[in-house]
Write the C-alpha cells for this entry.
Amino acid sequence: MTHRGSRVLHVGSLSRVEGEGALRLRVHDGTVTEARLEIYEPPRFFEAFLRGRSYTEPPDITARVCGICPVAYQMSACAAIEDACGVTVDPVIRELRRLLYCGEWIESQALHIYLLHAPDFLGRASAIELARTHRADVERGLRLKKAGNSVMELLGGRAVHPVNVRLGGFHRVPTRQELRPLREQLTQALDDAWETVRWVAGFEFPDARVEADLLALAEPDTYAIEGGTPTVLRDDGVETAFPTGDFTEHVTETHVARSTALHSRLDGRLHLTGSLARFAISGARLSPVAREAAVAAGLGDPREGAVCRNPFRSILVRAVETLYAVDEALRIIGTYEPPERPYTDVPSVPGVGHGATEAPRGLLYHRYELDADGLITDARMVPPTAQNQGAIEDDLRRIAQRALAEQGMDDAALTHLCERAIRNHDPCISCSTHFLDLTVVRTAGDTAGGSDV
Amino acid sequence: MTPTLAVFKLASCDGCQLTLLDCEDELLALAGQVEISHFLEASSAVTGGPYDLSLVEGSVTTAADAERIRSIRAASRRLVTIGACATAGGIQALRNLADVDAYRRVVYAHPEYIDTLATSTPVSAHVDVDFELRGCPIDRRQLIEVITAFLAGRRPDVPNHSVCFECKRRGTVCVTVAHGTPCLGPVTHAGCGALCPAYQRGCFGCFGPSGSVNLPALIPLLRRDGLDEDAVGRFLHTFNTTAFEEELAP
C-alpha cells in the first residue's frame, strides 16, 4: 500500500476538457494536503483590448473567448450593454435568443455527455474508441449534437462564433418556413435526448457530495437560460437572491495563501454554478417532459425539491437539461411569428451595464462601462469555470481523500479518479484564462507549460 | 500503416479543433482512416510522435509555447495550422499594437505573475508550416478537404479568392452596393460561404486577407459608408490583426 507515504500526483495535460490544464494532488501520510486544478492556458487579455472598442462590438469579439459556448458570451454581452443603454428587447426577439441558446445547450451538453464524459463511465479513452463497442450510442450522441448545431447554424449562420447576433436582436430573423426543417430534426432529437437519459441512467456512479453553495439564475415561470436573477441555494437549504448589478459585490476573488491563483468566493463561501446548481434552483420549472425524464433518471421529482449534489451524477442532469432544451426549442419554433423588425435599436448611453446568462457550464456575468462616444472604457467577464474552480478543487480533495481512506488506491487509479472528478464539472479552461491568474508550480518533473509531444 | 493524426492547441478558444468534432457525419469515418495519436480535447489516449499530420490551433504567446511548437514541428511530417490564431496571431494579436504591460494591469490583480510574450504570433513565425487553413473559426468543409487531401498526398483545393465571389455564387445582393453597409468581403479570403452578407451584415474579415487585396481602394468606400478613421482601424484590426496589418504596410 502506498497511501501511507507522502506522494505528489501530477497530470501534466488534462484530457477531454475544453482548454489546457493540469492537475496536482499532494498526499502526506494518507491525507490529501493539496488538490489543485492548474490552469496554464496563456492569457488572451479580452478585458484589456475591449477598452476603446465600440459598444456594438462585444457580441462578436467576446464570442471568441470560447469556441464551445460562443452564444453564452454573445448573450451575456448583449444583456449587459442593453442594460447600460436602458433597452429592453421585444419578447419575440427574446424567444429567438432563447432558441439560439437552446441550440448551444444541446450541442455543448451532447458534446460533454458523449465525447468528454461518457468514456469515463465505460472505461474508454475517447468516444471514438467507445464507438467500437457502442457504435449506436455514439452515433446517437453525434446526431443529437448535430441537431443543436443545426439550430445555431440556421439562426446564427454557423455553430462556432455565430455571425447573426447583434445588440437589440439579430441582423436577420428567419421566416416561419425557414424554421420548418428544424422541426423534423428536433423531433428526432427529442427521441435521442430521451434515449440519452435512459442510457446514462444505467451508468455506475461513485458516491460523492459537492458541499459548496449553488448559484444559478432563476426566473418566475421558466427554467432560466438567457436571463434571470442570481439565486443562491446554500448547503443548509436557505435560498437567497441578489440583483445582477450587485454580482461583483457578492462574487469576489481572493488570493489563497501560498498560491497565486485567484479564487472566487460567493459571500465568502465556495460556490458552484452549472447544471447541478440550475437543477437545484430551477428544477421545478422544467417542462413536464423534462421533469418526467428527471424522475426516470433517478434524480427524483424536482417539484418536490429534488436536488442532486453528486458530481458524478451531473451527467444525468445534463441529459435532462438537453432533453429540456430540445423540448423548449420545439415549443419556440411551434409558436414563432417573425417580429416586425429583426432588432430593437440600442442607442448608446454613457454608464454601466450588467448582464448574466446561463452558459451550458454555468452562470456567465458581463459588465461594461460606456463613455459618451459609445466606446467601452471598462469590461469585466466572470466565466463559470473561474467561479467553480474553488468548488472543483474542494470536491477533488474530498473524492481523493475518501478513495484513499476507504480503498487505499494506487497512484494510477487515484490519478484516473481525480481526472474523472474534474471532468464531472466540465471545466471550460479557455474561458478561465483571461480571468484567473496563472498558477504554474515548478517542481522536478513538472510538465506544466506543456511538453506533451 | 494507418496514418497518424495529432491535434495541438496553443493560445485560442478551442473553436477550430471543436470544428473537427462538429463534423458529426464524418467523424467516425475519419476515425477509421487515421490513428488519432494526440488530441487532448477528445481523447485521453496519447501516443508519441512522429505524426503523419499535425493540426495546430492557436497562436504563440508564451516562451513555453514557442518552445513547444518547435517540438511539435520536429515530431510532425506535415504540419497544418488551423484558424486565425494559428495563421495570423488571432484576436489576441491586438496586444502587438498595444502595451502588453498595460494589458496585464487591466486584467490581473497581480500582473507580475503573468507569463506572456509581448506579441501573439502565428505558427509560421516560428516554424515551417505545410499549409495554413484560415478562418475564425475554420470552415468544417474546408477542414475535411484539407485532411483528406493530406491523407491522399495532394495539395488541398482551398481557393484564395475573396468573399465577394462566394456572395455572387450564393446570389446574395451586395450589402455595400445596395445598402451602403461597410463590408470587408472584397478583401477577405473565401471559405465561410459568404455568411455575413447572407445575414444582412457586412463581412468582418474573420478569414483574413484573400489572395489579391487592394486595401487602399477599399478604405475610401468604408469611409463613404460611415466609418471614421478609428472605426476603419478597428474594423481591420480584430480577428486577423497582423494579416491585415501586413497588407496595409507600405
Observations:
- The mean pLDDT of chain B is 94.
- Chain B touches chain A through 75 residues (CB under 8 Å).
- Strands of chain B lie at 4-9, 35-39, 51-57, 76-82, 131-133.
- Residues 140-152 of chain B form the longest helix (13 residues).
